[in-house]
Design goal:
Lambda Exonuclease, Chain A, 3-stranded antiparallel beta sheet
């Protein structure tokens, strides 16, 4: 898959700029959707346990604590390795799909090289099934890897494909999926509807990334939102229901707000400051005015990044002194 030219990886996630010479200013569609919490603890634990249980050296390591610990450490990273391999495979399949679209658009393409790359990884069935789907649905590509922008909400993203199928304009997102035990491609996640409806709500489309030229988005008038699961045994296109689109759009906008408030909270700086113990009772009678001044000084020092470590028994006044009754 071609890396969008205006996409940048930042401390706030993936963001987009208006041109190659401008700084990034808005989050990507996937970054916004990523604000939705996902608990993968169970899956990660299963992957680790499964890797360890099926490891060929487990039997011999059972009597060697050092070797067993090494196998446990290796197994603990099984989920991460699986995720990375799946992402790399997804990139290869997406790249092939993009090259097929470019070929049909009479643009420069690398279909042969992309297919050979899949074959080298024993992934050529993905390309075979994709070609079958492309021909069966008579796909007429209009644009591939389309970068879009929405000013009102504040986000940008890249659509995999805009095409005409059966006379309808379709916004298409490809998802590379594994195969279940019955030989069918695994189901798509409903989050893909948020991704596509955000694309549909785009206001501009990129024309020239270097010059920063944009035009009005021409594909937002009642398109068909089509997530497509690409597997080794089949390709399964799905249609996003028209009556649920508004709900997923509102959810996306809410997650965009979460991203913004999280970014603001991070920019505000450190949220917690060190605080010294309250003064001894004898020092508490010194007067609330002196205590308040010392408390203010202690807080100011902490905000400036200065950490004071008071020796045991000290009567230094802390920020807690403000609550002392003077008794």
């Amino acid at each position: 898959m071609t890396q969008p030219r205006l996409a940048h990886q930042t401390e706030h996630g993936r963001m987009y700029s208006r041109s190659t010479s401008a700084p990034p200013t808005v989050p990507s569609i996937t970054t916004v959707i990523g604000q939705q919490a996902m608990d993968l603890t169970g899956w990660s634990g299963y992957m680790a346990a499964n890797h360890l249980a099926s490891h060929p050296e487990l039997r011999g390591a059972s009597a060697d604590p050092g070797q067993l610990r090494a196998l446990v450490r290796e197994s603990a990273a099984a989920a991460e390795r699986y995720r990375d391999r799946a992402a790399e495979r997804g990139d290869r399949v997406h790249y092939y799909a993009e090259q097929v679209a470019l070929r049909h658009l009479d643009r420069e393409h690398r279909v042969r090289e992309a297919r050979e790359d899949l074959a080298q990884h024993d992934e050529h069935p993905f390309a075979d099934r994709f070609d079958e789907w492309w021909d069966a649905y008579a796909v007429e590509p209009l644009a591939a890897e389309v970068t879009v922008w929405n000013h009102e909400v504040g986000y940008a993203g890249t659509l995999d494909l805009v095409a005409r199928i059966g006379g309808r304009v379709c916004l298409i997102d490809f998802k590379t999926k594994g195969t279940d035990r019955d030989g069918f491609v695994k189901a798509l996640d409903d989050k893909v509807v948020m991704q596509l409806v955000a694309g549909m709500k785009a206001q501009e489309i990129l024309v020239d990334p270097v010059a920063g030229t944009w035009e009005a988005f021409p594909y937002g008038a009642n398109p068909l939102l089509l997530p497509v699961a690409i597997g080794q045994t089949e390709v399964r296109p799905m249609r996003a229901r028209d009556d649920v689109l508004a709900h997923h759009w509102y959810k996306f906008c809410s997650l965009r707000r979460v991203w913004e408030t999280s970014t603001d909270a991070t920019a505000a700086g450190r949220a917690l400051l060190p605080i010294a113990p309250p003064p001894a009772s004898s020092a508490a009678t010194a007067g609330s005015g002196a205590q308040d001044a010392a408390a203010s000084s202690a807080i100011t020092d902490a905000e400036a990044g200065t950490t004071h470590r008071t020796p045991s028994g000290s009567t230094a006044v802390s920020a807690l002194a403000g609550s002392s009754s003077g008794a």
